[in-house]
Design goal:
- There is one protein chain.
- By secondary structure, the chain is α/β, with parallel strands linked by helices.
- The chain folds into 3 domains: about 60 residues, Alpha-Beta Plaits, CATH 3.30.70.2580; about 80 residues, Met-10+ protein-like domains (GMP Synthetase, Chain A, domain 3, 2-Layer Sandwich), CATH 3.30.300; about 180 residues, Rossmann fold.
- About 30% of the residues lie in helices and about 30% in strands.
- The strands form 4 sheets. The chain has a 7-stranded mixed beta sheet with strand order 13-12-11-14-15-17-16, sandwiched between helices. A 4-stranded antiparallel beta sheet has the order 2-3-1-4, covered by helices on one side. A 4-stranded mixed beta sheet has the order 5-6-7-8.
- The longest helix is centred in the last third of the chain and has 14 residues.
- The protein is elongated, with a radius of gyration of 28 Å.
- The mean pLDDT is about 90.
Length: about 350
Amino acid sequence: MSAKSNQTACIKVPKKQGEKVIALANKLGILDKSLAILRDENNLCMPIVRQLQETEVSFLREQIPNIEFTANSFVKKKQTPETLFQALQGELPPNLLSSIPQAFDIIGDIVIIEIPPELEPHQTLIGDAILKTHKNVKTVLAKAGDINGAYRIRNYTFVAGERTTRTVHKEFGCQFYVDIAKAYFSPRLSHEHNRIASLVQSGEAVVDLFSGVGPFSVLIARKNPNVRVYAVDLNPDAVELLKVNVKVNRVENRVIPMLADAREIVKTKLKSTCDRAIMNLPETAIDFVDAACDVLKQEGGVVHFYGFVRSPESIDNLKRRFTDLVEKNGRKVGKFLYAKSIRETAPFESQVVLDAKIL
């Protein structure tokens, strides 16, 4: 088999056998993936990277008797950069390449990126590069301030793609309708959502004191058909999205959305009703330890407490503060079942989870 001048050696087969031939060519390591496969009405021509040995030709003829070995002219595939850094090489001044963010959050089809000041004049270029390197992304937004307020909302700057803050995020078989401009949501807590859901036992009553759009509550209910989850949040927009997520994920008979202040709803409706309490409000959850103590049944239960640890404070310091507050509310920590830093949130700051058995 020989290739004509300016042509590339290739394999020609009927279309219906294309999938089989591609698998065989990949097995032999001969398919030239830098060139686009040619197609006509009946056949495929697949470029190969080298002349084939007689044993390879025989092997392919045995598998596909009507295979042809020929040559043709092929077009190079348009190469898609694999990383954001690669996409921006040659586009940004060399002195700015080191400032390109190494990571960003993806919520559904929205990317949320933190753009350093020196790159702000180039943010549209960066956004377009993200869209090129992440085909499932439709919108790029930049953080425009810290999370703040009782509803834990952040402002965003539109960078590229579709102008929206609404999306559908998939996690462990659940769908979550999210509007990041109106309700807090973090994809970085997906492991925690799943870990807690895996700990809940059949027959338990669980309260999610700061539920947001329901990532803890809905996943717990999906994994456990015999539970009751009280999903509480103060943010009306979050609760409306929570109601949608409860319905979409078919857990209406297990999750009870409640628009309320956590402390007030515990006092008026949920006192001594639950086996387990989730406290994912890391900035101020420490101020609601009384509500967690009150909501647990008299025989006790488990609290999953999330807080921030800032250097020089340690996890042990946070354990002591939590223990002291539990004791001030007439209960005690039997033991800490789990204590771990789960993610860095700022220089010298991390989010920590404490799983505490409360007596």
